[in-house]
Structures are given as structure tokens and as C-alpha cells.
Amino acid sequence: MSHRIDAGSVDELAPGQRKLKFINGRSIVLFNIEGTIHAVDNACPHNGASLASGRLDGRVLRCPAHGLPFDLATGAMPGNAGLSLTTFPVFIVDGRLELSLQPPSETCRGFACRESLDRQTDTDPQPQ
Fold this sequence. Notes:
This protein is mainly beta.
């Protein structure tokens, strides 16, 4: 089991909301897009601008500095496979958000992972 960090209550992040968190020395933005929680590094990979205030269009986040679009589900910039956000797997366990700050596995790499609310009692949930 990978080491996970508590990122607060799932109730703190209603659909459509975002929250900037400082976790283990990292600045991470959490987004609730239609019930799916996404976590990304707050720094744009292009020039390091804060993404917390970026414009959202569905699950596409635009960097406020230069308008570069990033898909929150994959971290990828459409049309530019070489430039992508650092994403973190998110798990919901007993009503709490847990992040894995380790590099995601190949099966989860680039995807926001979500633990079903129905599986809250599982001690080692797998990303979906």
C-alpha cells in the first residue's frame, strides 16, 4: 500500500468547487468536477504560474498566465503530449480525501483516481 496523506473531508469540496491545499510542502489544488475529485500540482508546467485561479470549462483548466488548457482527468494538454500537469491519485475513505503524493502507477498515471463512496470501509481501496 502506498503512503497516503489526508487532504480533508469530502464534504469540504462540493461539486464545482476547488480548494488550494498545502500538503507536505507542496501546493496542490483539488477540484470537484461533477462528483469526481481531481488533484493537481498548483504550478503550471509551462512557466510555474499558480493554477488555483485558472478558468474551468468542464474538466479543462486554463492556466491564468498564458491560457494553456489542461485536462484535469489526464493532466495532458490537448495537442501537446509533452506538456502535462502533475496529477495525484485521490481516494475517498470514510468520508475523507486521501492523496498519494508518490508517482502514480502506470495503471493510474495521468488519471484522477476515485474511490467509490460505497467502498468506504475498504482498508486498501484501489483507484478506479
